[in-house]
Amino acid sequence: MVTDEKHNARNRKYSRTPKGRKSYTKKNWKNRGLNMDTFYYVYPIFLNATNCERCGVEFEDNNGRNQKCMDHCHITGIFRNVVCRNCNVNVIPHIGKNKK
Q1: Residues 20 and 59 in one domain
Q2: Closest CA relative to residue 60, chosen from 70, 72, 46, 50
Q3: Structurally, how many domains does the chain consist of?
Q4: Contact in structure between 54 and 61 (CB atoms under 8 Å)
Q5: Contacting residues for 35 by C-beta, under 8 A, at least 6 apart
Q6: What's the rounded Cα separation, in Å, for the pair 8 and 12?
Q7: What integer pLDDT is reported at residue 43 of this predicted model?
Q8: Are residues 54 and 88 in the same domain?
Q9: pLDDT tens across 39-76, in order?
Q10: How many Cβ atoms sit within 10 Å of the Cβ of residue 83?
Q11: CA–CA distance, 49 with 69 (Å, rounded to integer)
C-alpha cells in the first residue's frame, strides 16, 4: 500500500514533468471556463508566448504582474490572447462583473 507521503512525493515529481504541467494546465483552464475543444491548438501558443499581446511586456515565471495569463471570453470560453496578469485584470473589460 502506498503511503500518503509517497503518493504526494510521486505527484510532486509528476507535476514537474511536461506531461504533468500540461495536465494541470488543462484542468485549470477547464475550471476557469476555457473552451476545451481548442486546447491542443491553444496550448502551444500559450507555451511559446514570450510577451503580452496587449502591452508587449515580457512575461516572468513568477506570480507577479507580468505572469502569463490566458485571456478568453467568459461567455463562450473562446481563446482571445495570451496576456500579462496586469492586462488580464486591469485592461480587458470583464463582461457581467459589477465595478464598485
Answers
A1: no
A2: 50
A3: 2
A4: no
A5: 72, 76, 77, 78, 79
A6: 6
A7: 94
A8: yes
A9: 999 999 999 999 999 999 999 877 777 899 998 888 89
A10: 24
A11: 10
More confident residue, 94 or 61: 61
Output the nine-digit C-alpha cell for 27.
484542468
Same domain for 88 and 58: yes
19: domain range? 1-31
Task: For residue 66, give every residue at least 6 positions away whose Cβ sits within 8 Å of its Cβ, in sequence order, or none.
Answer: 52, 57, 58, 59, 60, 84, 85, 86
Backbone angles phi, psi at 67, to 5 degrees: -70, 145
Residues 6 and 38 in one domain: no
Does residue 38 share a domain with residue 24? no
pLDDT tier at 2 (50, 70, 90 boundaries)? low
89: cell is 485584470
Judgement on whether residues 5 and 20 belong to the same structural domain of the protein: yes
